From TrEMBL:
Pathway(s) per entry: Lipid metabolism; fatty acid beta-oxidation
CDD domains in the cross-refs: crotonase-like
Any GO CC annotation of this UniProt entry: mitochondrion
Family the entry assigns: Belongs to the enoyl-CoA hydratase/isomerase family.
Keyword annotations from UniProtKB, A to Z: Fatty acid metabolism, Isomerase, Lipid metabolism
Protein name per the record: Uncharacterized protein
A GO biological process held by the record: fatty acid metabolic process
GO MF terms held by the record: delta(3,5)-delta(2,4)-dienoyl-CoA isomerase activity
Length: 280
């Protein structure tokens, strides 16, 4: 386990447990890893860097401690920051208040890392913002006993960070998605597995993290050209027709198959030797 020198943050731990793998831990266990604005800005900066870091090919995201991945928004901190509070003494014009709030909401949107594979480990309390973050990941793994919920209707609003946009595409079951979003009820890892929200459930957090790190190491050992291309084409397929995606794949691979990685992978299959791929 080594630290990554370019990733020093106040609210997150970023380490490298194996070559080309980063482990990001939300590090506020005394507050159930709940988020406030400064944390959110750090979170965005971390994943913007990871997405273009040639030393990182796969990322595991978890929460510090055993109690929570994240309990969502730190309501106490949020009460004293942002335009919701600031606008109380500002302009009374509705359009200007709405514009400030819209800018604030946009700031909190999650940009899913385009080029890096992200494996999210859900454990303990995983509410609200936890789902927003998880649906941005490529792969989700849960620990037994995880408490999952889209909680926003219970605090008087529609989820606005990404759950309502991404969860229907992740799960593909409109009835179930509307049920959990409209009732804000808690659902279990077993239910999440049954509907396809997570792909694995493990007995505890440690086992789930170990499974995620093992998977990340496996992915990181493969051609980064092939892995990034596979992620890009799958994400394109999610939002386009089959014919559009086939055309996009043809254009993409017309360049990518010219890579040395393709030749190395073919040769490795013939010689039964594990290939080593250059950084991107």
């Amino acid at each position: 386990m080594t630290s990554l020198p370019n990733y020093k943050y106040g609210h997150f731990l970023v380490t490298s447990p194996s070559p080309f793998v980063a482990h990001v831990e939300i590090n506020q266990p005394h507050k159930l890893n709940s988020f406030h604005r400064d944390m959110w800005l750090e979170f965005g900066d971390i994943f913007a860097k990871l997405s273009h870091d040639p030393e990182v090919r796969a990322v595991v995201l978890s929460g510090s401690g055993d109690r929570a991945f994240t309990a969502g928004l730190d309501v106490k901190a949020a009460a004293g920051e942002g335009p919701i509070t600031a606008s109380e003494g500002g302009s009374e014009d509705i359009a200007r208040k709405a514009t400030n709030l819209r800018r604030y909401i946009y700031e909190f949107r999650i940009a899913s890392p385009r080029w890096t594979t992200v494996i999210c480990i859900l454990h303990g309390v995983s509410l609200g913002l936890a789902i927003d973050i998880a649906v941005c990941a490529d792969i989700r793994i849960a620990a037994e006993g995880t408490q999952l919920a889209v909680k926003e209707v219970d605090v008087g609003l529609a989820a606005d960070i990404g759950s309502l946009a991404r969860l229907p595409k992740v799960v593909g079951n409109s009835s179930w998605v509307k049920e959990v979003c409209l009732t804000a009820r808690t659902f279990s890892p077993q239910e999440a597995l049954a509907v396809g929200f997570v792909s694995q459930v493990h007995p505890n957090k440690q086992a789930a993290v170990e499974a995620g790190l093992k998977m990340a190491a496996s992915i990181a050992g493969k051609s980064p050209v092939a892995v990034q291309g596979t992620k890009e084409i799958l994400n394109h397929a999610r939002d386009h027709s089959i014919e559009e995606n086939l055309r996009y794949t043809a254009v993409w691979n017309s360049a990518m198959v010219l890579s040395d990685d393709f030749k190395k992978a073919i040769l490795a299959g013939l010689t039964k030797k594990k290939p080593t791929f250059e950084k991107l």
